[in-house]
Known about the structure:
Elements: H1 9-40, H2 56-81, E1 92-99, E2 102-106, E3 112-113, E4 116-119, E5 124-130, E6 135-139, E7 144-148, E8 154-158, E9 164-170, E10 182-188, H3 190-198, H4 208-215, E11 241-246, E12 249-254, H5 257-265, E13 271-272, H6 289-301
Parallel strand pairs: 1-5, 4-10
Antiparallel strand pairs: 1-2, 2-3, 5-8, 6-7, 6-9, 9-10, 11-12, 11-13
Helix pairs in contact: 1-2, 4-6, 5-6
Amino acid sequence: MRTGASTFAEGVDLSLYIIAGISIFFLIGITAVMIYFVFRYSKKRNPKATNIEGSNTLEVIWTVIPTLLVIVMFYYGWMGYKPMRNVPDDAIVIEAYGQMWKFSFEYPDGKVTDSLVVPVNRPVKLNLNSRDVLHSFYIPAFRVKEDMVPNGENYLWFEPNLPGRYDILCAEYCGQLHSYMLSSITVVSDAEYNSWLTSAPSITDEHPGLSLLKQNACLTCHSQDGSKIIGPSFKGLFGKTEIVVTDGQEREVTVDETYITRSIKEPNADIVQGYMKGLMVSYAEVLSDEQIAEIIDYIKTLE
């Protein structure tokens, strides 16, 4: 009977059961011995303290047995972990990006999505990238978890064996909205996967600037209705006068194309009064000038 949705689940669960079983056994055993000693060697039974001689046999037993148990736990842990680092040559390679506070995925053909879709019974490798701080990519049902390190390289792979939809979480505290950093992975048949992969994105009337804001998790920190989140709201922003802190000095600025472009490329250059520095990273290498222009054009509509 399968206990998880990937081929790793059985090995990971087995090592967990062994470690938990050994721990529970010793918890019960040591507690029982402690209770026995409380009554057996109480002051009532032993009014006069006596010295108990040591036992070489006992010393050997409680040294050798724990050592063997640690080796057993290490063995099963290693056997569960080792396959996770050996990626099959035929694995589907997908780029996974983490940023405050969202996951996004880029497929080999350039398709970018907010959630994963993968075929059943085929290995999938995720190259893990962070665009800002340390995140941890975690799929509980698959028993896989690896860190997304800024300016670092890491990966994980899995082979899903049960169709369905499963949660993706960030398992590393990454800031104020860490608990909102959620996504999903949908496991489908080969035919469904190929159909989804080649399908054109749905045609909507959505402003391209809004699509870019959603794709880059901008709306996690900046509202569209005037409410304050992590950063200033986009509503009524364009043309507004703001007090900002630049190089430690306060100054008044008017929010225009130049200011917004600089804020996207150099987010810590001008900090709006009342907000914290260092919560946003530069998008100079993520967004092109044309894309920034689309975002500005959309912000202008939020009067």
